[in-house]
Specification:
By secondary structure, the chain is α+β, with helices and mostly antiparallel strands. The chain has five helices and nine strands, in the order ββααβαβββαβαββ.
Length: 178
């Protein structure tokens, strides 16, 4: 691990790539996980004015975030998803405290990812960050469409909840449809 002058650990894209390549993932899951990290590196590099290979991940480089991204990539592979519809991402307002201090919502990395990927944001009145850079990068990496079909069958539903306390539940719902 790299240790910065402020004492925080961070991994760069090359280190994360080596970690992922050493794992036992399918080629699709590996490529998707690497794509998500490349999107994050490009966004962070743009925000900090550095090439993506010089970006050091802090929150994202933490082991739990690596596991989250790998788990999502493996899940996409296991489900054999052939398309992902993301009409928009719901974002909060105000500020959030992170590794870089207090930042406006959406944070600069999210703004960059949304701008570069063509994702749409729907701003809400919720105080706080609803879209993290990792979440935005995942949506950007997997989205193939932005419009739901007029009719569809729901085959399964997955729901995940965030850890932060907001005035409304911080829930992500994904539906497997046909």
């Amino acid at each position: 691990d790299s240790i910065h002058k402020n004492g925080h650990h961070g991994r760069n894209l090359q280190e994360i790539t080596r970690i992922l390549q050493a794992g036992n993932m399918s080629p699709y899951a590996l490529e998707l996980a690497l794509k998500i990290f490349r999107i994050l590196a490009e966004a962070e590099g743009s925000v900090h004015g550095k090439p993506m290979d010089q970006v050091h991940f802090h929150e994202v480089g933490a082991v739990d975030s690596i596991v989250d991204i790998v788990a999502a990539a493996v899940c996409m592979d296991s489900l054999q998803v052939d398309g992902v519809i993301v009409p928009f991402l719901c974002e909060g307002k105000g500020t959030v405290r992170c590794q870089h201090g207090i930042l406006p919502v959406p944070v600069p990395a999210v703004t960059n990812i949304v701008q570069n990927s063509g994702l749409k944001l729907r701003m809400t009145q919720v105080e706080g960050e609803l879209v993290t850079p990792t979440g935005a990068a995942f949506a950007a990496a997997v989205r193939t469409e932005e419009t739901l079909p007029e009719t569809f069958r729901i085959l399964n539903v997955g729901i995940g909840a965030g850890k932060r306390k907001y005035e409304c539940p911080g829930i992500l719902r994904a539906m497997l449809i046909e």
